[in-house]
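Thread: "does anyone have the structure for this chain?"

Original post by V.I.:
We have the sequence but no experimental structure in hand. Need at least a predicted one for the grant figures.
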Amino acid sequence: MPHYIILSTLTDEGRRTLKQKPERILEVNKEIEGMGVKVLKQYAVLGPYDFVNIVEAKDNETVMKMSVEIGSRGSVQMLSLAALPVEDLIKNLK
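Reply from O.Q.:
Generated one for you, tokens below.
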């Protein structure tokens, strides 16, 4: 299944929610899985983004639908990137 990298930044509303209920992160992960996007790894990071997620989904459309649904809530802004394993890139370049 294809992999994607999701970079996300919390809005002011999202930061308030996280402060009041840190476990909300895990609840959202379950919601995302219900949309067909499996969270493989998740990191809280410093810098311009608050979280980096490595996810798996059947196609771009599934990730796009998830991104619109989660983003429409107003608590987070996301950047989704399709990821290709380096081994596949090398194979395709030969």
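V.I.: this helps a lot. The chain has a mean pLDDT of 96.
O.Q.: and The chain has four helices and four strands.
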